[in-house]
Amino acid sequence: MSGGKLIVFSAPSGSGKTTIVRHLLKQKELGLEFSISATSREIRGEEVDGKDYYFLTFEEFKKKIKNDEFLEWEEVYRDNFYGTLKTEVERIWAKGKHVIFDIDVSGGLRIKRKFPKETLAIFVKPPSIDELKIRLKNRKTESNDKINMRIAKASAELATAPLFDKVVVNDELEHALEESYKLVSDFLKDKP
């Protein structure tokens, strides 16, 4: 696999990474395209297969793991697998674009290890765990049990921030958007 560059955004759920990634995708001069992750979890709300995720059955996901079809994958929660299909990255690179990821911390670090020179790994940090909990509750998409599960996981994920190339603290969205744009723009200008 070879082609463009890889931009990874990882963070605890509710930190704002998806908002930042969506903003960057609108900046056409960056030449980015979103890598759609595959998952074995159920569709939530108004999500669309092939747009938000590639929704696979548990069996389909396991078969693709066995066939080495993933660049990275992980069982994020029990029986909920997430991963990046190799064909997804190849599809984007074939269009002459750079790949931008909105993925969990472990997946982001795996991509960075596999493609150290081609990857910019950015960790989006919430201002605090308390603020993270407020953001997750305000989404109104998950039960209190799920929110508590995500908060527990967030503490471990925050400890990985130093392993990333850059950390963006999302305490003021406008500033986080500007900082992310500059980091990505500067990285894309550098030759690998």
Summarize the structure.
The chain has 192 residues and is an alpha/beta fold. It has seven helices and nine strands.
Radius of gyration: 16 Å
Mean pLDDT: 91
User: Can you tell me the CATH superfamily?
Assistant: P-loop containing nucleotide triphosphate hydrolases
| Beta-strand percentage range | 15-25%
- Per CATH, the class reads Alpha Beta
The helix-and-strand class reads: alpha/beta
How many domains would you count in the coordinates? 1
Main attributes of the structure:
192 residues, alpha/beta, Rossmann fold, five-stranded parallel beta sheet, four-stranded mixed beta sheet, 7 helices, globular
Structure in words:
This protein is of the alpha/beta class and 192 residues long. It has a single domain (6-189), classed as Rossmann fold. Helix content is 42%, strand content 22%. The protein is built from 7 helices and 9 strands, in the order E-H-E-E-E-H-E-E-H-E-H-E-H-H-E-H. The chain has helices at 17-25, 58-66, 86-94, 105-114, 129-139, 144-158, 173-189, and strands spanning 6-10, 32-34, 38-39, 54-55, 70-77, 80-85, 98-102, 119-125, 166-169. A 5-stranded parallel beta sheet has the order 2-7-1-8-9, with helices on both faces. A 4-stranded mixed beta sheet has the order 4-3-6-5. Helix 5 packs antiparallel against helix 6 (144-158). The longest helix has 17 residues, at 173-189. The chain is globular, with a radius of gyration of 16 Å. The mean pLDDT is 91.
